[in-house]
Design a protein that fits this description.
The protein has 10 helices and 3 strands. The chain is mainly alpha-helical. Strands 1-2-3 form a 3-stranded mixed sheet. The chain starts with a helix and ends with a helix.
């Protein structure tokens, strides 16, 4: 899924449609919004959420136009209101990261990566995505800063008791360097050895 999302721009909307086809969004009596996954579609929801996160961050780093991003934002915010709660699902952190992108209120910038225990493959993909998002947000903001929720990932990785892959450590250092104003080349422009150095 990650590889396909990098190659085919139509998968941005395809991942979004796949995700929304296997969940239900319900409102509770207190104004909260809960996400319920249709029974039997948990794995598809997880893959679609990761694919969507990957496609967004990859396209931001390459050729995602403001029109495409605006269209996705409109569709996303229609399905997932600002107070949507993704907790309890395996795709909680990936969807919360997308949510922080589209709802940039102070509340969402306080997003924490606590209890994040990804597989090595997911960890590598998410850290790479966050480097792309950090670069995009740094250029986009007038003050030239990386959002705090992305920096928290870099500062609080790895989860306690685990040793991250070398690529994740390189990505976390890249996020910090971007926030400090360093010119960090895109990951595609470097070899693995250069990234780790």
């Amino acid at each position: 899924m990650a590889t396909l999302a990098n190659l085919d721009p139509t998968l941005l909307m395809d991942c979004f449609n796949a995700l929304t086809s296997c969940i239900k969004v319900t409102c509770d009596d207190y104004g909260g919004v809960q996400v319920v996954v249709v029974r039997g579609l948990e794995q598809l929801a997880m893959v679609a959420a990761l694919g969507l996160f990957n496609a967004i961050s990859y396209r931001l780093g390459t050729d995602l136009t403001p029109r495409v991003l605006g269209d996705l934002r409109r569709r996303y915010t229609k399905v997932f209101p600002e107070h949507t709660n993704f907790q309890g699902h395996r795709f909680h952190h990936s969807m919360s990261a997308i949510h922080c992108m589209f709802f940039q209120s102070r509340k969402h910038q306080a997003f924490l990566w606590n209890a994040y225990k990804p597989s090595a493959n997911e960890y590598t993909m998410v850290s790479r995505n966050l480097v792309n998002l950090a670069r995009f947000e740094y250029k986009r903001t007038p003050r030239g800063k990386v959002p705090r929720w992305i920096l928290r990932f870099a500062f609080h990785s790895p989860p306690l008791g685990t040793i991250p892959p070398a690529s994740v450590i390189a990505d976390c250092l890249s996020i910090v360097a971007i926030d400090l104003g360093c010119d960090v080349p895109s990951t595609g422009a470097m070899t693995s050895d250069e990234r780790y150095v």
